[in-house]
Write a structure and sequence with these properties.
Elements lengths: L2 H14 L3 H10 L14 H12 L2 H9 L3 H18 L9 H11 L34 H8 L14 E4 L12 E3 L4 E6 L2 E6 L5 E6 L7 E6 L5 E6 L4 E5 L4 E6 L6 E7 L2 E6 L3 E6 L7 E5 L5 E6 L5 E6 L4 E5 L7 E3 L6 E6 L6 E6 L5 E6 L4 E7 L4 E6 L5 E6 L6 E5 L5 E5 L6 E6 L5 E6 L3 E6 L13 E2 L7
Parallel strand pairs: 1-29
Antiparallel strand pairs: 1-28, 2-3, 3-4, 4-5, 6-7, 7-8, 8-9, 10-11, 11-12, 12-13, 14-15, 15-16, 16-17, 18-19, 19-20, 20-21, 22-23, 23-24, 24-25, 26-27, 27-28
């Protein structure tokens, strides 16, 4: 017998008699051959996903999570089919891309290697509980057949083109003003320079409600009451005028502010007004003008006001980066949030979850933040990448829309609480400073310093396939 062959044979016999740990150390120290580890204990569904995530850049991951097209859903279904056939995953329904990504991300935090070196264990055959029929001609397992037959949710398609564009000359490019509001009667009120115009969404008829130029004043805010019969108009000189929209007449003019009134909010028959003089005045329009409540808590201009759906709490945002919450009886704020790093104009109460408040910060902050006003705790936050100008919740789903200024001038639709982007809409060339939701809760209108109003179907269940691209010059300048 050849001596070299006898030496190798004896070495192999001695190696097999070693314990498992010693044998592994010998294999690792040997040179000249590969070490092939056992893969019986590896969780391939997690490791495979973890490897794909490492190969992607952060931008690619972000785009993959935001994708909602048919092709992305097909890719998810195909990946689930491969996991069934190659890894025995047993998936029977097409997973949601966002939920699936988050689940794997959590599971993969504790795993930083693709292979695990463990002792060999007995493997359970895939589909042992549900074998494929021996008469089936399909190469796929029963689980994969169920996966392919599972009902697919219709793709959420939000048109990226506005279905209507109105020209709005003299619409000011001022972050601290609120010049657009949509009434329950389907009338849109817009403050243009010294005038307030009403546009009917049913007939497209435009009427001029008031002209403040005769008093040397200008419009700084507009707000409809809940019934859509009265519209409040804040002015640059600090007045708050109440107008009857149907009759086209002014009912009263309220004094009390020493500077412009940039924020208004109705609560039944009570009207709250926020001003550059840092004061919030709350007045009942049925009582004499002298009966008022003065709320003082902000150190700079009040630029955002919203009443909660239960009419019990008022949220106010200011240029002092503060978000304050007031109740209906106290003269001092019951809660104060100071996490924002810039002016807080964007405020919205959730109609779906009691006590949930959303807010957005200005250019130096750029964050959406969510608060539980029942406990006073901060819930979530996300950096939007640009100035947050407005917020509004959907009436039908747990979603909200935000409009932005510097530097992207975009409109974003978010899912809550996952905070995944459903859609990104662009078209305005200036900051999207104004936002209002239609009374049916399906469409929104946005306004910007580019002197246009754009109407978008963002929350609609049935959307038009044809979109109007024409610009309708319905607002005319007063010469």
């Amino acid at each position: 017998m050849d001596q070299e062959y006898e030496r190798r044979l004896l070495r192999q016999i001695n190696h097999q008699n070693l314990p498992t740990e010693a044998r592994l150390s010998v294999l690792l120290t040997q040179s000249g051959d590969r070490f092939i580890p056992t893969r019986a204990g590896s969780n391939w569904s997690i490791n495979f996903h973890y490897a794909n995530e490492n190969c992607r850049s952060p931008n690619q991951n972000h785009k993959a999570k935001d994708a909602s097209s048919d092709s992305s859903k097909d890719a998810v279904a195909y990946a689930a089919l491969l996991r069934n056939e190659l890894l025995g995953a047993g998936i029977e329904t097409v997973p949601d891309p966002h939920t699936d990504d988050r689940r794997h991300a959590v599971l993969s935090q504790d795993s930083h290697s693709l292979f695990r070196y463990t002792v060999h264990t007995k493997r359970v055959p895939f589909d042992s509980d549900n074998e494929v029929s021996p008469y089936s001609l399909s190469p796929l397992s029963n689980k994969s057949h169920k996966l392919l037959r599972s009902p697919r949710k219709p793709a959420r398609k939000i048109s990226k083109i506005p279905f209507k564009v109105l020209d709005a000359p003299e619409l000011q490019d001022d972050f601290y003003l609120n010049l657009v509001d949509w009434s329950a009667g389907n009338l849109l009120s817009v403050g243009l320079g010294a005038c307030v115009y009403l546009w009917s969404a049913c007939t497209s008829q435009v009427t001029r409600l008031c002209d403040l130029s005769v008093d040397g004043d200008s419009v700084t805010s507009v707000c409809w009451n809940e019934r859509g019969s009265l519209v409040a108009v804040g002015t640059h000189k600090g007045y708050v005028q109440i107008w009857d929209a149907a009759g086209g007449r002014k009912l009263t003019s309220l004094e009390g502010h020493s500077a412009r009134v940039g924020a208004l909010a109705w609560n039944g028959e009570q009207l709250s007004s926020g001003s550059r003089d840092r004061v919030i005045l709350q007045r009942d329009v049925r009582t004499p003008p002298t009966a008022e409540r003065r709320l003082q808590g902000h150190r700079q201009e009040v630029c955002g006001l919203k009443w909660s759906p239960d009419h019990q709490h008022l949220a106010s945002g200011g240029n002092d980066n503060k978000l304050l919450v007031w109740n209906s009886s106290s003269l001092l704020p019951v809660q104060q949030y100071s996490d924002h790093l810039a002016a807080v104009k964007a405020i919205a109460w959730s109609p779906h979850q009691h006590g949930l408040l959303a807010s957005g910060g200005g250019t130096a902050d750029r964050c959406l933040r969510f608060w539980n006003t029942l406990t006073g705790q901060a819930l979530q936050s996300t950096d939007t990448g640009s100035q947050v100008c407005n917020l509004a919740w959907s009436k039908h789903a747990n979603e909200l829309v935000s409009t932005h200024g510097y530097s992207q001038n975009q409109i974003l639709v978010w899912k809550y609480p996952s905070l995944t982007q459903v859609a990104k809409l662009t078209g305005h060339s200036y900051r999207v400073l104004y936002l209002a939701v239609s009374p049916d809760g399906e469409a929104i209108v946005t306004g910007a310093g580019d002197e246009t109003l754009r109407f978008w179907n963002v929350f609609s269940k049935t959307r038009c396939t044809k979109e109007s691209k024409s610009v309708l010059n319905l607002f005319t300048r007063i010469r």
